[in-house]
Amino acid sequence: MHPLLSQLNAIAAQAHTALSAVTTLPELEAYTRAHLGKHSPLAQMNKQLGTLSTEEKRSIAPALQALRQELEAHTHTLQETLSTAAMQAELAAQWYDLTQPSTARKGSLHPITRMRHDIEDLFSSMGFRIADGPHIETEWHNFDALNIPPTHPARDMQDTFFLRTGHANTRENTVLRTHTSPVQVRSMLQYGAPVRVVVPGRVFRNEATDATHDTAFYQVEGLVVDTHIHMGHLKATMQTMLERLFGTEVTVRMRPAYFPFVEPGIELDMLYTKADGTEKWLEIVGAGMVHPHVLRSCGIDPSVYSGFAFGFGLTRLTMLRYGITDIRDLFSGSYSVLSQF
Ligand code: FA5
């Protein structure tokens, strides 16, 4: 037998023994490198073929080729078997029972949402509609129709985010609404008189933030227009609302205040206990009797109808109800704050 052939037999025997010991994918990789790779005995023998006579080549090359093919076929089959087994082991380890109840904490409603639901329930039970309006509002609805003409200093009472692009259809100037009062105008235009609406919603102001001021916060507007409506109705409505929301007696004080869209106008402050234990007044609402100019702007005859309107700081009411001392915590997304509710 040609010495190279007996060498080939030895290589084959070694390769078969080594292959039968392979049980994992990394071992198989190492095996393939050692027995079929560039520096394997098979590759070296291949190089030696060049030094042989044609006769010798003819007897050895096919055997060499056959051994390589056989080993490649075996490693390929083993590769498939080991990969399938590895995947099955992984799937078995990662098995989840989706029918098991979760041990994680369940979600809950945001305190502002809860407050909003309570307000909506309360006012629905008193025959009010729940209304809504756009966050991007025309200057006409946010200011003009509310008796705040363009050159009037009252335009500066609320720090406004003015938008560069006008209203999509009309090209009118637009702002991020600074209060929910423009929905008074929308409701009167849509439903006429008599009307009763409440409008919970988000408003935006370009102002510095602190523990009781945010740049985006919630208000809830109320509007009642009918014959013979007077301040007594306004006071009774606000009193009912506060009693129902807080469930206990709360201390409020009423002050005269100026808003161009009401006459007379008032503000209520509520007494609360700060984090340091001291007591403080917090302004919770602006309100008053709807100004005749506003009724007229909305096509309602002020000699027949009168109305009251209020704009509560819904975010501030939520702070007071749940004892939240910094308004910014409500939208910080902080889990430690929200998980209390
Ligand atoms: C208004 O926005 C009037 N539209 C309210 C109104 C409605 C008056 C109807 C008359 C008739 P004012 O700017 O005061 O008013 O805001 C109303 C309430 O929103 C305040 O009493 C306060 O509770 C709350 N508020 C005002 N600014 C902020 C702020 N930056 N962050 C949180 N709450 C605020």
Topology:
Elements lengths: L2 H18 L4 H12 L4 H8 L5 H40 L17 H15 L3 E2 L5 E3 H4 L31 E3 L5 H10 L3 E10 L11 E11 L4 H16 L5 E5 L5 E12 L5 E12 L1 H6 L8 E8 H9 L12 H4 L3
Bound molecules: adenosine-5'-[phenylalaninyl-phosphate].
Task: Write up what this structure looks like.
Helices cover 42% and strands 19% of the residues. By secondary structure, the chain is of the alpha+beta class. The chain has 2 domains: 3-94; 111-338, Bira Bifunctional Protein, Domain 2 (BirA Bifunctional Protein, domain 2), CATH 3.30.930.10. The protein has a 7-stranded mixed beta sheet, sandwiched between helices. Strands 2-3 form a two-stranded antiparallel sheet. Strand 7 and strand 8 (279-290) form a beta hairpin. The protein starts with a helix and ends with a helix. The chain binds adenosine-5'-[phenylalaninyl-phosphate]. Adenosine-5'-[phenylalaninyl-phosphate] binds at residues 158, 179, 181, 205, 207, 213-214, 217, 219, 259, 262, 265, 283-288, 309-311, 313, 315-316, 327.
What is shown here, in short?
This protein is of the alpha+beta class and 341 residues long. It has helices at residues 3-20, 25-36, 41-48, 54-93, 111-125, 139-142, 182-191, 231-246, 292-297, 314-322, 335-338; strands at 129-130, 136-138, 174-176, 195-204, 216-226, 252-256, 262-273, 279-290, 306-313.
